[in-house]
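Lab notebook, bench 4. Still working through the backlog of constructs that have no structural model yet. Next entry is a single chain of 224 residues. Request: give me the structure tokens for it.
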Amino acid sequence: MAILEMRDVCYSYKSKYQQIEAVKHVNCSFEQGKVYAVVGKSGSGKSTLLSLLAGLDLPVSGDVLFEGISTGAMDLSKYRRECAPMIYQSFRLFPLLTVSENITYPMELRGFTGKKARDRARELIGRVALPESTLDRFPSMLSGGEQQRVAIARALSMDSKLLLADEPTGNLDEENSINIVDILVRLAHANDYCVVIATHDLSILPKVDVVFRMNSGVLFQEKF
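Model written out:
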């Protein structure tokens, strides 16, 4: 069963000069245990698509369904906080918080604090292949690849089986890009996560399970 679906989703917005149809009648589904890549040139609509999946926007028409429930019927703040963790190109870690505090922040929003939260952060930092000593450092003390691993650990702390990633390798060199993609693939295949990646990085495509391509707001699945 799909954890996430889009049913005849359309989204448009007004620029200074015209109405932009960013997403046009998209139908697709995303299952746990798989990695999905959404590719397309800049302006094709893939980032808008991801923002709809993440609950950052609602469709103009159609439905985005998480576990069978439309995001339009949900408290979107709660959905974003508990169900749809996002990993960004720019990492978006809190610079004045330690790695441990960054990872436990989503837990604290759910009332999960103290030793249990710290123990969970210790577990998650290991799952992204960073040493426990990383927990007491600040983001500025880490490399880009390390910061992105921390961002993944923070996303995992939400205890959702969905992970959304917007250009997660965009600020990384080739070696770190490979490592980040390998972590995401492992989370899907070994831990039953649903991972959706919007990306320009075509080198990751052999590692993913399903490739969707967007062109002028239209989504279609590529066949191999």
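Notes after review: The helical segments are 46-53, 76-82, 99-109, 114-127, 144-156, 174-191. Strands lie at 2-14, 19-31, 35-39, 61-66, 69-70, 86-88, 162-166, 194-199, 210-215, 218-221. Flag for follow-up if needed.
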